[in-house]
Amino acid sequence: MKKHLTVYCGSSKGFDNKYTEQSKSLAHEMVANNYHLVYGAGNVGLMGIIADEVLSLGGEVLGVIPQHLMDREVGHTSLTELIVTETMHERKMIMAERTNGFIAMPGGIGTLEEIIEVMTWSQLDLHPYPVCFYNVNGYYDKLFSFLEHMVSEGFLKQVHIDNLILEEDPKRLMSRIKNFKTNSVEKWI
Length: 189
Prior knowledge:
7 strands, single chain, seven-stranded parallel sheet, alpha/beta, globular, 17% strand, Rossmann fold
């Protein structure tokens, strides 16, 4: 059975070359652990880097992109499989349906919006998969500080943070994904 990971990441490379290097490192770990990439089908920024690296290592890449972005010529056309959708909502649903876990690499508002949405879905028991933050250069440290603030103010339960994977090393990230078991979650009423 094929295993897939949905990776959300920037359509830019960021200012530090470490983001590029660590994108390639994650691609190596994914392929070494027999995971295929599901992503937003961009050929630019970290999106293009991880897709190209997975492909160069013999892995498979499914890209899902809405037509309006394909029309802007930002779609990657050399993927194992490319699905062009009508809407962003359709794109996100296909990416969620074709995965065994979610990883947010460094990225912008779109990356943040997508990983928070699947975090919410996890909280609501709409999927059983790991929700991960690849914390290159401490990129997500402040987000996790804010999540802890939400807990301290009574708007988020600690178990929902405990179910997340925050990792800066790609080998440890893949190990934690492979061994993921969700904590029992007390339901919101």
